[in-house]
Design goal:
The structure holds 2 protein chains of 2 kinds. Chain A is mostly helical. Helices cover 70% and strands 0% of the residues of chain A. In chain A, helix 2 crosses helix 15, helix 5 packs across helix 9 and helix 14 packs antiparallel against helix 15. The chains are: A mainly alpha, B mainly alpha.
C-alpha cells in the first residue's frame, strides 16, 4: 500500500518514492527515443481530448452556427445560450441533485456494511462463516444484469418502483468489495486488537479505533470505486424510475436525448454539465484515485 | 462457541439457573464471534442478490409476464425456445464480435499508453488526466458526445473524412460499420482503467533487471521486449480476463447509441433480454435467455482461470 494515500502530509514523502520506484527511463539516453515517445504521447492525448474539446466548442455557440459545415470548431459568435436554456428548463439541476444523493448514500451504505462484514469474516468465529464467505465470493461472478428482471418484479411487489429506496438499496450489495477488504484485514496483525481487548474495549470499539484507522487507504479506494460506479450506473436506475423528478443524471439525459433532436449545442452543454462533477473530483483527488485502481485492481470496472 | 467454553468452565462464580449464562458474558459472545458484523451485509445480500437469482431461475421456468396474470410453470420450454431462437444466436454473435474487436485495442492501447507515460517524460499529471478522464463520464454523456461526432452530415467524423478527400461514412447507420463505431467509443471511454492498471504494475516493477540489462548494453527496444514486457505478463493476463468479461456484458452504450440498430446489427445479448422482458413483456423468457448468458459467462470465467493457473 502506498503511503501517499494516508492522511499524513504526503508531498515530501512522495518525491523519493517516485524516483526509486520502477525503471524511470526505459528510453535510453538518445534524443530520438524521447522525441518519438513524446510525439506518440501527444498524438494519443490529442485523440483522447478531441471529443471533449469539440463538445466544449459546440456547447458555446448558437444552434444555427453549430450546423454550418466545415472543420473549424468555432463557426460563429461565442454564447452561453445553450447552458442558460438547459438550466432554465430545470431538469438538469434536479437530476444532478438526485445523482449526488443516490451516489453518496450508495457509497456510505456500501462501505459501511462491506467493511463491517469483511471484518466479521476476517476475525469472526461464528458457525457457517466459511460457507457464507464462499457464497459471497461466488456471487462476484453474477453479472448485475442478470438480476434486473427479477429485481424489478421484487420492487413491484414491495411497491417500491419510483422511490429512492428502489434506486439505492439494490446497489449496496458489493461482494467484490467485501472480498477485497477481507483480504486486507487478514493482513493486519491481531496483536494490536488483542491488546485493546485486554484493556476491555468492545468489539465495535476495537474495529472503530484500531482497525479502521489502519485501513483508511483501502477503504478510501473502495469508496472511490463505489462512488464512480453509482454515479455512472445507468441500467438499474433506468429500469426502476419513470418519474422524471426521481431520475439520476445519466437516466434523465438518456430520456431527453432524442428530444434534443438537432439541438447539438444544448445536447453538448448538458453532457458537459453532467461530466463536470467527476472530472473536478479527479482533479482534486488524482493521486488517490490512481492508487485506488492499483489497490483494488480487481474491484473496479 | 469455542472461545467462550473454556472461560465458562474456568470461572463459575455464582450459581445461576442452568442453561442461562450471565447477561454480560452472553453479550461478549454474540459480538465476539463476529456474526453481528456480518449481519447487515447478509440481509442485503439475501434480499437483493440471492432472492433475485433464485427468483429469476424460477421465472425462467414459467411464462411470467409483465401483464398481471398468474405465471404458469412451463418446465424447460423457455430454454428450448431460446436455443431455437435466431435472435438469440444473432445477438450472441454480435456480443462475441464486439468482445473481440473491443478487447484487443483495449489491452494494447492501454499497454502502449502506460509504457509511454512510464518513460518519464514531463507532464505525468496531464497525460494521466487525458487518458483516464473519459472513464469518469457517465454512459449517457459519452453517447451524447459521440452521437454528435458520428452525426452523418456535420459531425466531426465525416468532416474529417471529407477534408481528407474521402467518402463520408454512415457511422451508426451502415450495418457493416456500426459495431466498429460502438467499439471505438468503448475504447475511448474505458481504456483509462486498463491504462492505470498497467501503470501501477510498471511502477511496482523492480528497476534492477532493467538496469542490469542496460549495463550489459541492451538498447531501449531490446529491454522493452526482453525485460519489461515479460515482467508485465501477469498484469496482461489479468487485464485481458477482466476486459473479456466486461465486454461480454456490453449493453448501456449500445442501447443509448443505436438501440441495437441498424437492423439488429449491434444488438448484444443483454439488450435482447431487455427487449424481450420490458418491451415484449415476456419476463419468463427473458429470464431464461439471461440464464443462458450467465452460463456462458461462467464457462468463460472458468476457462480463463484455468489458463491463468497454467501461466503461473
Amino acid at each position: 500500500m502506498s503511503p501517499t494515500a494516508t492522511a499524513t502530509p504526503a508531498r515530501p514523502r512522495r518525491r523519493p518514492r517516485r524516483e526509486d520506484s520502477g525503471s524511470p527511463m526505459p528510453l535510453g539516453h538518445g534524443r530520438l527515443p524521447r522525441v518519438l515517445a513524446g510525439t506518440a504521447l501527444t498524438v494519443l492525448a490529442v485523440v483522447w481530448l478531441l471529443p471533449f474539446l469539440w463538445a466544449v466548442a459546440t456547447s458555446v455557440q448558437s444552434e444555427q452556427d453549430v450546423t454550418k459545415p466545415g472543420l473549424s470548431p468555432f463557426k460563429g459568435a461565442f454564447t452561453f445560450a445553450a447552458y442558460r436554456q438547459i438550466l432554465e428548463r430545470g431538469n438538469v439541476p434536479t437530476w444532478a441533485f438526485n445523482s449526488v444523493l443516490v451516489a453518496v448514500l450508495v457509497t456510505v451504505i456500501t462501505v459501511g456494511i462491506s467493511t463491517l462484514a469483511a471484518y466479521g469474516f476476517s476475525r469472526g468465529t461464528f458457525r457457517g462463516r466459511r460457507a457464507l464467505l464462499a457464497v459471497t465470493v461466488a456471487a462476484i461472478m453474477v453479472p448485475p444484469q442478470l438480476l434486473i428482471v427479477p429485481l424489478f418484479e421484487q420492487m413491484t411487489m414491495f411497491g417500491w418502483v419510483d422511490t429512492y429506496a428502489a434506486i439505492i438499496l439494490p446497489q449496496v450489495v458489493a461482494p467484490m468489495m467485501v472480498f477485497i477488504l477481507k483480504r486486507f484485514f487478514d493482513g493486519i496483525p491481531r496483536e494490536l486488537e488483542d491488546a485493546a481487548r485486554i484493556d476491555g474495549a468492545s468489539e465495535i470499539r476495537v474495529f472503530r479505533s484500531i482497525v479502521l484507522p489502519l485501513s483508511r487507504p483501502i477503504v478510501a479506494a473502495v469508496a472511490i470505486f463505489v462512488f464512480i460506479g453509482a454515479w455512472n450506473n445507468f441500467m438499474w436506475p433506468f429500469v426502476v424510475t419513470n418519474d422524471p423528478d426521481l431520475m439520476t443524471l445519466p437516466v434523465g439525459l438518456a430520456t431527453v436525448k432524442d428530444a434534443f433532436g438537432v439541438q447539438y449545442a444544448q445536447s453538448m452543454a448538458s453532457a458537459l454539465l453532467a461530466a463536470l462533477p467527476l472530472i473536478v473530483m479527479f482533479l482534486l483527488f488524482q493521486r488517490r484515485i490512481v492508487n485506488s485502481v492499483a489497490t483494488t485492481g480487481l474491484g473496479g470496472g | 462457541m469455542t472461545t467462550t467454553a473454556p472461560a465458562g468452565e474456568a470461572a463459575p462464580p455464582r450459581p445461576g439457573p442452568p442453561g442461562a449464562p450471565p447477561a454480560a458474558r452472553r453479550r461478549t459472545r454474540l459480538s465476539g464471534d463476529g456474526r453481528l458484523f456480518v449481519l447487515p451485509f447478509l440481509v442485503c445480500f439475501a434480499l437483493f442478490l440471492v432472492w433475485p437469482v433464485v427468483q429469476g431461475l424460477w421465472m425462467s421456468l414459467t411464462d411470467a409476464s409483465l401483464t398481471l396474470r398468474d405465471p404458469q410453470f412451463v418446465g424447460f420450454a423457455n430454454y428450448a425456445e431460446a436455443f431455437g431462437d435466431p435472435d438469440v444466436w444473432s445477438s450472441l454473435g454480435n456480443t462475441v464480435f464486439f468482445t473481440v474487436i473491443s478487447c484487443v485495442p483495449l489491452v494494447l492501447v492501454a499497454l502502449a499508453m502506460a509504457l509511454l507515460v512510464h518513460s518519464g517524460l514531463a507532464g505525468q499529471w496531464a497525460w494521466r488526466l487525458a487518458y483516464f478522464a473519459p472513464y469518469l463520464l457517465p454512459v449517457t454523456v459519452v453517447t451524447l458526445i459521440w452521437t454528435w461526432l458520428y452525426q452523418p452530415d456535420i459531425g466531426l467524423g465525416n468532416e474529417l473524412l471529407t477534408s481528407l478527400g474521402l467518402e463520408p461514412v454512415g457511422w451508426l447507420s451502415d450495418e457493416s460499420v456500426a459495431m466498429w463505431s460502438v467499439a471505438a467509443l468503448t475504447v475511448w471511454w474505458t481504456v483509462g482503467f486498463n491504462f492505470l492498471l498497467y501503470l501501477a504494475a510498471l511502477q511496482s516493477l523492480p528497476a534492477t533487471y532493467d538496469e542490469a540489462a542496460a549495463l550489459d548494453g541492451a538498447g531501449a527496444w531490446r529491454r522493452l521486449w526482453s525485460v519489461t514486457l515479460p515482467q508485465l505478463r501477469r498484469t496482461t493476463v489479468l487485464v485481458a480476463m477482466l476486459q473479456v468479461l466486461a465486454s461480454l456484458k456490453v449493453f448501456d452504450q449500445i442501447y443509448i447509441l443505436t438501440k441495437g440498430g441498424p437492423n439488429g446489427s449491434t444488438r448484444p445479448i443483454l439488450e435482447y433480454v431487455y427487449d424481450v422482458g420490458f418491451t415484449g413483456y415476456r419476463l419468463g423468457y427473458a429470464s431464461a435467455v439471461s440464464y443462458v448468458f450467465f452460463a456462458i459467462v461462467i464457462v468463460v470465467s472458468v476457462a480463463q482461470l484455468r489458463l491463468f493457473r497454467q501461466e503461473d
